Automatic annotation (TrEMBL):
Name this polypeptide is given: DoxX family protein
UniProt keyword annotations, A-Z: Membrane, Transmembrane, Transmembrane helix
Primary subcellular site in the record, as a coarse category: membrane
Annotated organism of origin: Winogradskyella pelagia
Membrane-traversing stretches: 7-24, 48-71, 78-100, 120-141, 148-169
Length: 369
């Protein structure tokens, strides 16, 4: 029992630290996922949506420090029971999401590793079993270091986690796991290779044959059955190849400019997923930066999900010398974790990205002129 407890301790502690750190690297992304869970389609707790970011930071910092506490044996009872409470809650959440098919990706490992709801539920069940082992064998969990060093390590883990979370919120994630990361070519990320795996769908046909209903399963072809057709049900067996980028577009009310702008050699995108909720201090920085970029030969465009009135108001108020185009809000949030954020493209390849706090760090050099 002693050795099983120690193995469980190491596995649970390391997994909580890794999972927590990945989400702490991108607390905004995790807050967007929490907003999905809080929405009417899942938990119907929309009153929590305005607090999603604060809850996100608390949860991921708590997740990291619980992993550290477990490994070093600090505040053992508090740590074990906190782990149990957290995993019970997340096991319920992932089961609910999977069973009712509410959220396609749990967000457990951010954008680094995508898990289906059922995969996430299975992971949580395994963790629940391991944590129950820790509960049963709590007497075997001892501090690794004397009291003072253990306390210092615990305190440092808390301070470093808070600092790191604040740092990435004020800038951008230290590690970008998304399809819009620097170096990625958006055109390639949107393509489906000719030899890519195709979706596989199972068709269950129902016919009335000689007065009895019978079912026939095919891969799509109409079955050769002598009988009266009753109905058909489809089931997706394999989604096939799904490109990393599926919903990105740059549009006006009546035209799609995606291909045109992705072929620009020097393109600056000002990403404002919601103009009304944009950081005013960041918006105030846009005029000088974008005018300078235009002078240096860059094509500058805005990307937003906001309506025409908001677009005209912000252009007029801040005297912006570029046009805004439409894109899905969720996609813009995925492109850059800032509102506003800056993305520089060269023939569809992301060359630079910045939070509005770091707009001065964007090197626009000389464009095509």
């Amino acid at each position: 029992m002693k050795y099983i407890v120690q193995l469980s301790r190491i596995f649970v502690g390391v997994l909580f630290i890794i999972s927590g750190f990945i989400k702490l690297n991108d607390p905004l992304g995790f807050s967007y996922k929490l907003q999905e869970y809080f929405g009417a389609d899942v938990l119907n707790m929309e009153f929590l949506i305005p607090y999603a970011l604060g809850i996100s930071v608390f949860v991921v910092v708590f997740e990291v420090i619980l992993g550290v506490f477990l490994l070093i044996g600090y505040k053992v009872k508090f740590t074990i029971w906190s782990l149990l409470a957290m995993i019970v809650f997340f096991t319920f959440l992932t089961f609910y999401s999977a069973y009712f098919d509410k959220v396609k990706d749990c967000g457990c490992f951010g954008d680094a590793l995508k898990l289906t709801p059922w995969e996430s539920f299975t992971k949580d069940v395994v963790l629940l079993v391991l944590i129950l082992i820790l509960v049963a064998g709590i007497k075997y969990i001892k501090p690794i270091f004397p009291k003072l060093p253990n306390t210092v390590i615990a305190l440092l883990s808390f301070i470093v986690s808070l600092w790191f979370g604040y740092h990435v919120l004020m800038h951008l994630p230290a590690i970008d796991f998304r399809a819009y990361a620097i170096g990625k070519n958006l055109k390639q990320q949107m393509e489906i290779p000719e030899d890519a795996a195709k979706p596989i769908t199972e068709y269950t046909w129902t016919f009335n044959v000689a007065g009895k209903e019978q079912t026939f399963i095919t891969n799509g072809s109409y079955p050769n059955v002598e009988g009266e057709y009753v109905g058909v049900e489809t089931k997706l067996i394999d989604e096939g190849y799904i490109p990393p980028i599926q919903d990105f577009s740059i549009e006006s009310d009546d035209q799609d400019f995606t291909t045109e702008f992705l072929n620009e050699e020097n393109l600056v995108i000002v990403a404002l997923y919601s103009i009304s909720s944009a950081e005013q201090e960041g918006v105030a920085k846009l005029k000088v930066f974008t005018d300078n970029a235009i002078k240096r030969g860059y094509k500058v465009i805005g990307l937003t999900s906001s309506g025409e009135e908001d677009k005209e108001n912000i252009k007029s108020q801040y005297k912006l010398n570029f046009d805004f185009y439409l894109c899905d809000e969720k996609v813009i949030k995925t492109i850059v974790r800032a509102n506003p954020g800056i993305v520089v493209l060269n023939n569809g390849t992301v060359t630079q990205k910045a939070h509005w706090n770091d707009i001065e760090d964007i090197d626009i050099g000389n464009g095509s002129n």
